[in-house]
Amino acid sequence: LNQPQRDALRNQINQAQALATVEQTKQNAQNVNTAMGNLKQGIANKDTVKASENYHDADADKQTAYTNAVSQAEGIINQTTNPTLNPDDITRALTQVTDAKNGLNGEAKLATEKQNAKDAVNAMTHLNDAQKQALKGQIDQSAEIATVTQVKQTAT
């Protein structure tokens, strides 16, 4: 829980008129706390994700979706006013981060570019088999689309 959430929940407990309300607030606090822990864990590797090939060569809209989902999650975590007290809202933010992360397509695009480049090299009649194999080896070792493109251009 962040401090505004603690304060708001403590205030709800202090103003409760019945034991059932206190118990309900306590249960909600536990649910919010669990959801917040999951949310923090869900964005803990954001820098690793943003440094990955899957993010680096992903479509711009997919990068933006991930960045925005992480920003929204950080907004909930770092709230100073108007705390989010609904665990479903917090879980929804985590789902958006997870979905956006899973939607990143840089690795798939790299695999497609590698295959396209190898097909192009195979079709080059001015290269012998040893040259083709060497270029395809360089393509297979390429860690990003820009490198694949560079190897393919070198072959032409």
TrEMBL record:
Which residue numbers delimit the Extracellular matrix-binding protein ebh GA module domain? Answer: 97-156
Q: Which UniProt keywords apply?
A: Repeat
Pfam families attached to this UniProt entry: FIVAR, GA
Q: What is this protein called?
A: Extracellular matrix-binding protein ebh GA module domain-containing protein
Organism of derivation: Staphylococcus aureus
What are the leading ranks of the lineage? Bacteria, Bacillati, Bacillota, Bacilli, Bacillales
